[in-house]
Amino acid sequence: MCRRQGINIYPFLRILTGLLFMTSGFEKVISPHQNFLYVIQSYAFLNPLLEEMAAHLLPWCEFFIGIFLVLGLWLNRSLLGLAFLLVMFLEAVAQAILRHLPIEECGCFGGLMSFPLPSVLVFDTALFILTGLMYYKIEKTQRFSLDQYLFKNEAP
């Protein structure tokens, strides 16, 4: 019996997601942190001390998680980190929508592009589901990854 092999789209999805977060993080990293701080403050979600910390740290987290996803390095941890970021983003956007905050654009990609909050909610939910699927199918997601070559004998 010949078993037909389907196309493994998980590495492609992993790399595409990684590029998305690399781009988003990089745009915020190279811009003055006050730009992203303003975006964070508009969501009225955190206390001022946490807003300042988030404006400094979140862009770097997005950037490095994106790099790790593209390279396929430490995928279990990278996907969990991404899921954590997405949960935070979903909470911030959902509460802004429910509170009818006057936010016209999300600020997700710094100055590159922006989207209305309802679209961001749908997109981030889809990314969260995709992240969970990549985590659940980690063996397929690891294809063409550094993990596949560096940690051959370790269990995922």
What does this structure look like?
This protein is mainly alpha-helical and 156 residues long. It has one domain. It is 69% helix and 0% strand. Helix 1 crosses helix 3, helix 1 crosses helix 5 and helix 3 packs across helix 4. The mean pLDDT is 91.
Helix content: 55-70%
Spell out the helices and strands N to C.
HHHHHHH
Distance between the termini: 30 Å
What's the domain count?
A: 1
Structural class: mainly alpha
Strand proportion, as a percent range, falls in under 5%
How many strands?
0
Low-confidence stretches: none
Q: What summary fits the major beta sheet?
A: none
**Quaternary status of these chains?**
single chain
What general outline do the C-alpha atoms trace? Answer: elongated
pLDDT averaged over residues? 91
Radius of gyration: 17 Å
- Contiguous helical run count: 7
Give me the secondary-structure topology.
Layout: H1 10-30, H2 33-42, H3 48-71, H4 75-98, H5 117-136, H6 138-141, H7 146-150
Helix pairs in contact: 1-3, 1-5, 2-3, 3-4, 4-5
